[in-house]
């Protein structure tokens, strides 16, 4: 049955580039309603997705109705009210609390939490599947939020932010490091049974395939936003979330694509105030604003993007990049840890 909320969401997503729109539609099926439910059943997936929506201040009536249909009337209300979580089995409470933390701030998730889930009887496949549900739901919420703001915004005048840090220096006036120093090669150390990030995600192959195809379309397929600007947006979002692995990847890639040895390094070392170009600054600020939970993206961010020359299609590309970064950050930060220290390898 098609609900009013799903119609609204479908209408919003209809403005995306055809490749991104089609692959985004595939994500729900792969993550929330996959063919293989041996890791997590549909009720568990709906329960997690609904909690992620709630902590993002985006209640989802469709998800709530689906959960009630799958797990019994009133199940959605239990998810909404943390004081009623005691009505759930202890293992389900632990999983839901973990998923809430992944959605809120993945930087606060530790290897100890993965150990606690394993002690509750959850397998690696179940932990990875739960992380994919959180990450994919975080992506969809941010995508819809940003696209709705684009539709509601106009191209009126917007104030330009003041730059407070000299170009080519850090906040304390020191010289910037080189790109190689700012974005060193890092190794991802898994907290689950795997020897690499990709291998870890193969514990949920259906979600991995959907995520990979969508990621490639958003980051590399032809679009209005230049490839170097997409990498800059992904870097800004990763820095805001605190994902060292993704920051390094996108920082290096932005330097390679742009031959600009300063902008990404300045952003990483001194923050958005060190980005002097107003187009790049608007991109950085908007992408970073979409990163936290709940998101901080506003109509003013969209207005500034329009004011510096981004087309509506280019802004939609940027929103998709930042939303996808929220997905990949949550996987990288909560299934393992990035390090440059040989002792950790």
Automatic annotation (TrEMBL):
What residues does the Carboxymuconolactone decarboxylase-like domain cover?
Answer: 205-252
What the entry lists under InterPro entries is as follows: AhpD-like, CMD-like, Uncharacterised_peroxidase-rel
Specify whether Oxidoreductase is a keyword of the entry: yes
Q: Which Pfam families match?
A: CMD
Which Gene Ontology MF annotations are present? peroxiredoxin activity
Keyword Oxidoreductase belongs to the record: yes
Arranged from A to Z, the UniProt key words for this protein are:
Oxidoreductase, Peroxidase
Q: What is this protein called?
A: Peroxidase-related enzyme
State the organism of origin: Saccharopolyspora antimicrobica
Upper lineage ranks? Bacteria, Bacillati, Actinomycetota, Actinomycetes, Pseudonocardiales
């Amino acid at each position: 049955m098609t609900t009013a909320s799903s119609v609204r969401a479908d209408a919003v997503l209809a403005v995306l580039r055809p490749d991104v729109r089609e692959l985004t539609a595939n994500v729900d099926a792969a993550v929330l309603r996959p063919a293989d439910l041996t890791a997590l059943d549909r009720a568990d997936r709906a329960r997690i997705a609904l909690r992620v929506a709630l902590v993002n201040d985006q209640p989802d009536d469709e998800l709530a109705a689906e959960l009630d249909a799958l797990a019994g009337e009133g199940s959605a209300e239990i998810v909404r009210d943390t004081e009623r979580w005691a009505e759930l089995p202890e293992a389900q409470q632990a999983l839901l609390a973990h998923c809430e933390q992944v959605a809120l701030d993945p930087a606060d998730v530790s290897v100890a939490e993965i150990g606690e889930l394993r002690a509750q009887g959850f397998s690696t496949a179940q932990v990875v599947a739960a992380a994919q549900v959180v990450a994919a739901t975080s992506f969809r919420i941010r995508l819809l939020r940003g696209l709705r703001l684009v539709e509601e915004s106009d191209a009126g005048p917007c104030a330009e932010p003041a730059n407070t840090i000299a170009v080519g220096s850090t906040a304390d006036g020191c010289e910037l490091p080189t790109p190689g120093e700012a974005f060193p090669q890092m190794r991802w150390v898994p907290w689950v049974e795997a020897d690499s990030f990709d291998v870890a995600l193969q514990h949920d192959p259906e979600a991995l395939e959907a995520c990979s195809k969508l990621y490639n379309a958003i980051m590399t397929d032809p679009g209005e936003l230049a490839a170097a600007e997409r990498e800059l947006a992904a870097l800004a979002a990763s820095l805001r979330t605190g994902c060292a692995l993704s920051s390094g990847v996108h920082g290096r890639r932005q330097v390679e694509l742009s031959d600009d040895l300063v902008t990404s390094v300045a952003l990483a070392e001194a923050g958005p105030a060190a980005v002097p170009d107003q187009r790049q600054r608007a991109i950085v600020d908007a992408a970073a604003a979409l990163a936290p939970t709940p998101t901080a993206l506003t109509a003013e961010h969209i207005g500034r993007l329009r004011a510096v020359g981004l087309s509506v299609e280019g802004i939609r590309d940027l929103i998709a990049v930042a939303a996808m970064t929220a997905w990949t950050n949550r996987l990288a930060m909560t299934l393992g840890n990035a390090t440059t220290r040989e002792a950790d390898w």
